[in-house]
Design brief:
By secondary structure, the chain is mainly α. Helices cover 74% and strands 0% of the residues. The chain has five helices and no strands.
């Protein structure tokens, strides 16, 4: 998702310089992946966060940094949770995510118990 976010930033912000050299590009993608990986949101939230930053009157000119996108993603997620149409989808996404974490925990416990 970091690469998609960067590609959208590259389209919307002329001052943003997307690296063309593969090694440099990968380093930038990795840095953004690390930053965005601190929070888990549905993929579409990250792309909407770029739109959110773009729509802010104080954002014209300079491209966002990862922290800007993190803040905008939080805003977009809160808005989605309150929305009557999107809210149930967000809750379902959260429940599925929690179910998957619970399943992984049970599997790890089972493997540990089997190993002992």
């Amino acid at each position: 998702i970091a690469r998609e976010v960067l590609e959208k930033i590259d389209l919307l912000f002329p001052k943003f310089d997307m690296p063309s050299e593969p090694k440099r590009l990968q380093a930038v993608v990795n840095a953004w992946s690390y930053a965005l990986g601190k929070y888990v949101y549905p993929d579409n939230i990250w792309l909407e966060a770029v739109d959110e930053f773009y729509s802010r009157s104080d954002s014209w000119g300079a491209a966002p940094l990862p922290g800007d996108i993190l803040e905008c993603a939080r805003v977009v997620m809160e808005r989605a949770e309150r929305d009557p149409v999107r809210g149930p989808k967000v809750r379902a996404w959260r429940e599925a995510r929690q179910d998957e974490r619970d399943r992984l925990i049970r599997e790890r416990r089972s493997r540990r118990e089997a190993a002992n």
